[in-house]
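Input record, target 12 of the design panel.
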């Protein structure tokens, strides 16, 4: 047994290793751990990194959570266009919260953001 396991961090070490090896669920769970500060120091940028890795692999919860971080500007620059894009990926997988997020953005976004969103929607329709 190594010192990490003796200190009670074995599970976290295994989670990190799995996430670094591309395990989508581990990436999402590591994002949650960093976002909430569970077993690690709270670190929103690290949370966004792991949510992003899982979101890139199609994890609907990670897509929603990262979208919410961009929507609210939680330690990231507020970016309604990117939040909308992430929400739309999650909504395509029937996430109702993401659909609500998209609707909220469409009602509150300034005209230039709405124009960017329309361009984005035009680029995704073939």
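The sequence produced for target 12 reads:
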């Amino acid at each position: 047994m190594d010192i990490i396991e003796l200190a009670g961090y074995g599970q976290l070490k295994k989670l990190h290793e799995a996430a670094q090896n591309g395990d989508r669920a581990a990436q999402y769970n590591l994002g949650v751990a960093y976002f909430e500060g569970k077993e690690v120091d709270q670190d929103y940028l690290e949370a966004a990194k792991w949510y992003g890795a899982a979101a890139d692999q199609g994890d609907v919860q990670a897509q929603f959570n990262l979208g919410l971080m961009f929507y609210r500007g939680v330690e990231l620059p507020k970016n309604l266009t990117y939040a909308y894009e992430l929400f739309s990926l999650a909504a395509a997988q029937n996430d109702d919260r993401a659909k609500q997020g998209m609707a909220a953005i469409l009602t509150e976004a300034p005209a230039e953001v709405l124009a960017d969103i329309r361009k984005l929607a035009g680029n995704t329709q073939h």
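The radius of gyration is 17 Å.
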